[in-house]
Amino acid sequence: MSTQVIPDYTALARDIKHWARELGFAEAGISGVTLEQDEQHLNRWLEDGYHGEMDYMARHGSKRSRPDELEPGTQRVISVRMDYLPPGTQHAWDVLQDAEAGYVARYALGRDYHKLMRNRLQKLADRIRGAIGDFGYRAYVDSAPVLEKALARNAGLGWIGKHTVLINRLAGSYFFLGELYTNLPLPVDEAATAHCGSCRKCIDICPTQAIVGPYRLDARRCISYLTIELKGSIPEELRAPMGNRIFGCDDCQLICPWNKFAQDTSEPDFAPRHSLDGAKLVELFDWSEEEFLRRTEGMAIRRTGYEGWLRNIAVALGNAPSSEGVRAALLKRAEHSSAIVREHVAWALERHRQVP
């Protein structure tokens, strides 16, 4: 008659954090599954309509804030983070100040992180299985309704800042998050405490004033939403404030004092591709659809689609200094087959016609 050996969960939790670092994660932590206050915050956010066209934020009901409903049997969540800031890139402020260049959020310059992190989480699960045998788990990286920032906070990986981004005292905020939902009764870590104090730099610098109050982000005004999630026309009053940001926005992170501690990534796949850390708008606007698809293969930028890519760059060209090259690039797309592209090109051309 055999007896089942109960694992030493304290030792296992320590091993999990060690294995996570060996697999390229900067840090791992463990939390429980209770998120009542965060659920209330989410519901208020949805009621206010701040999610815009992101209907999926409301579609899953309480599964987002109740991990054991999303994955029955879940007792603990192993949260991991991975630094993404590539070393040796053009400085973000320099690109933002060069109105002829296109600004791409630093997380999106290289390979899309979703598959990379999911593969690493699977390897982490394999190591756990090798140590204790079969167990219940599910890996997530932006692939399901998960309150990843709240879970990471509860796992001690950082606090949610006033801009709603997770901040780590020793590493700033330039990192991705992933989760391993598990049925293992592991000891939980101490939740991180907040250290924003009276600082409101992120609120004040937001180009479109999308941070409507501490910890309250109106996604409908957020440049990341406008350039990626929104599929239709960008509201006209928000186009000029977008400046040269063509995919995402980092201003609230760039101004955050805690990012003086930001760590460069050691992951070579996150290095910039196609000089997108400061490429010229006119050159990017000239990409054919085939070229766009080829150059963005395996990158997060593809999420905006070719139509969205041209729409975003048309807005940035409308905000660029007037020149023959800029006007010629816009005129070349003035009769584009997409009504969305034509609309934003017409707006941009009108901006240049108003220049003496």
From TrEMBL:
Residues 184-216 form the 4Fe-4S ferredoxin-type domain. GO terms for biological process: tRNA queuosine(34) biosynthetic process. The keyword Transferase does not apply. It is found in: Cytoplasm. Pfam families: Fer4_16, QueG_DUF1730. Cob(II)alamin binds at residues 64, 142, 166, 177, 224, 249-250. Its EC number is 1.17.99.6. It comes from the Bacteria. [4Fe-4S] cluster 2 binds at residues 206, 222, 249, 252. The keyword Metal-binding applies. Its cofactor is cob(II)alamin; [4Fe-4S] cluster. It catalyses: epoxyqueuosine(34) in tRNA + AH2 = queuosine(34) in tRNA + A + H2O. Signal peptide: none annotated. GO terms for cellular component: cytoplasm. Pathway: tRNA modification; tRNA-queuosine biosynthesis. Its main location: cytoplasm. GO terms for molecular function: 4 iron, 4 sulfur cluster binding; cobalamin binding; epoxyqueuosine reductase activity; metal ion binding. InterPro entries: 4Fe4S_Fe-S-bd, 4Fe4S_Fe_S_CS, QueG, QueG_DUF1730. Monomer. Belongs to the QueG family. Catalyzes the conversion of epoxyqueuosine (oQ) to queuosine (Q), which is a hypermodified base found in the wobble positions of tRNA(Asp), tRNA(Asn), tRNA(His) and tRNA(Tyr). This is Epoxyqueuosine reductase. It comes from Dyella choica. The lineage of its organism: Bacteria, Pseudomonadati, Pseudomonadota, Gammaproteobacteria, Lysobacterales.
